Request: fold
Amino acid sequence: MSSTDRLQSADWLTLSGDDTIEWTGRPSLFTIAPQIIAAFVVAVGGAFVVSLLGSAVALPAFVHLLPLVAALAVLGVAGLRWYRIRYVITSSEVYIKRGFVSLDVDQIRLARIQNTTLSQSLVERILGYGDVTAYTAGSDTLNIEFRAVPNPARVNETLSTLLNRSPSEPATV
Reply:
């Protein structure tokens, strides 16, 4: 089953008969780069410390695996925090899903979105990710923010194209 097929059958995504998925994504993997570096430092530094201690004191065998286990734990947590976020733009709505067991889904109809903004710092421009915010009508309503998405210009263009089409046009981007 492909990723799009799984997404279309997700219980949190409500597609009507003529809705199509126009864009889907997750935050950039660059957002978890510090945790990946930390895991590497824990693994290498921990292995070095364990080898130094092992040459001076007899250590149980499992102690030699502790740096690897700690590094894998750091990588696992970072990966799950990244993977739990899913952004979806359909031909009629915008979704942000967070979570696995507990689920938090923000859903806004495109008709309620007034405008969008794209923002990138210098580092984000170099690495190719940024934030896209969709502002909704009214002061007490929810704004949708796609944080750290790869190729934010494409995401913003997809939203703008969908917002600028007339209601009678077919939803093709």
